[in-house]
Write a structure and sequence with these properties.
Elements: E1 16-18, H1 20-26, E2 30-35, H2 47-60, E3 65-71, H3 75-87, E4 90-96, H4 105-112, E5 116-120, H5 123-139, E6 144-146, H6 154-169, E7 176-181, H7 185-197, E8 202-207, H8 212-230, E9 242-244, H9 257-270, H10 279-291, E10 300-305, H11 318-322
Parallel strand pairs: 2-10, 3-4, 3-6, 4-5, 7-8, 7-10, 8-9
Antiparallel strand pairs: 1-2
Helix pairs in contact: 1-9, 2-3, 2-6, 3-4, 6-7, 6-8, 7-8, 9-10
């Protein structure tokens, strides 16, 4: 296996915990949780694993500025600017959404960590403005490194290939790994790690915002590209990728009854917090699949917690999480 530049700043290995009261409340199967909300950087989350490789690559290339993009309450952007602050990079973020009158949650943290923030109202304009921002930084001699959306590049995906190795070394037998999937880097890394490190169970991504067919194509291509960084290329196909699109029809960031119930069930039964966009939706999907009998009663599910809890404190979600209000855009 090739030697890959990596900065070791995540708090690893993250623990695996039993969720006995949630298991009982749902009538089985057995549920465990992998606590990647505890990776340590700026409240933690899955992007920290990816940034260990991405920031190392930026250093190798002599970059001085990290540039990335996401939604106004992006977990990825929060962790990216925190990594930039820790390792002495400047950071510019292109965020989609209206700039709030009062900063809260991830948007507040972006500012605290020192990001230059550019907001765009329309997601369709984000990629164009991101490229313009990068080009301007090049022209200004800022030596930028473009951190891809969600950290989901072949380099970023390596974070979750090695996360699978970490999990295997924890020697917990599970039948299913369930998690939220969107930009595909976590999903691709787990699929690659499953093959390389010999995980015999199934890896199921609950889509947050992407059609299943597109996820299968994107994740398989990304896993194939990431494999080349480890050694000989492994050609993955869509058949190697398990994804479920049945819980994302409301759209990205739209908080509904499923997310609300999932957050309350995890909180009231286990004292464990989910976020309203990613883990809340992924858990809602898992809970619904359990109730429908998709998983066997004697199986064990590992819910891979990818973090994101600061979003609970965004004005967009905070009242609706605990109240009886209607879903909000």
């Amino acid at each position: 296996m090739k030697t890959i530049p990596r900065l070791n700043f995540a708090h690893l290995p993250t623990p695996i915990e039993e969720l006995p009261r949630l298991t009982e409340a749902l009538g089985g199967p057995r549920i465990l949780v992998k606590r990647d909300d505890q990776t340590g950087l700026a409240f933690g989350g899955n992007k920290t694993r990816k940034l260990e490789f991405l920031v190392a690559e930026a250093r190798e290339q002599g970059a001085r500025t990290l540039i990335s993009a996401g939604a106004i309450q992006s977990n990825h952007c929060r962790q990216t600017v925190a990594a930039a602050a820790r390792f002495g990079f400047d950071c510019t973020l292109v965020l989609t959404g209206d700039r709030p009158a009062q900063a809260s949650a991830n948007f507040l943290l972006d500012q605290l960590f020192g990001a230059e923030i550019i907001t765009v109202s329309d997601r369709k304009d984000r990629d164009r403005i991101l490229q313009e921002t990068f080009d301007h930084a090049v022209a200004a001699g800022k030596k930028p490194y473009l951190v891809p959306y969600g950290g989901s590049s072949p380099t970023g995906a390596l974070g979750y290939a090695f996360a699978m190795e970490e999990f295997m070394n924890q020697k917990m037998k599970v039948d299913w790994i369930v998690f939220g999937t969107s930009s595909g880097g976590t999903h691709a890394g787990l699929v690659l790690g499953q093959r390389v490190f010999g995980f015999k169970g199934k890896v199921l991504g609950i889509s947050i915002d992407e059609p299943e067919a597109e996820l299968k194509v994107h994740v398989s291509e990304l896993a194939s590209q990431a494999s080349e960084k480890l050694g000989e290329r492994i050609n993955f196909t869509g058949d190697d990728v398990l994804a479920d699109e049945n819980y994302c029809q409301a759209g990205y960031g739209v908080f509904g009854a499923g997310e609300r119930e999932a957050i309350k069930l995890f909180a009231s039964n286990e004292g464990l917090l989910l976020d309203p966009v990613y883990t809340g939706r992924a858990a809602a999907g898992m809970i619904d699949l359990i109730r429908k009998g998709f998983f066997k009663k004697d199986e064990t599910i590992l819910f891979w917690h990818t973090g994101g809890q600061p979003a609970l404190f965004a004005d967009k979600y905070s009242q609706d999480v605990v109240g009886d209000g209607s879903s909000k855009e």
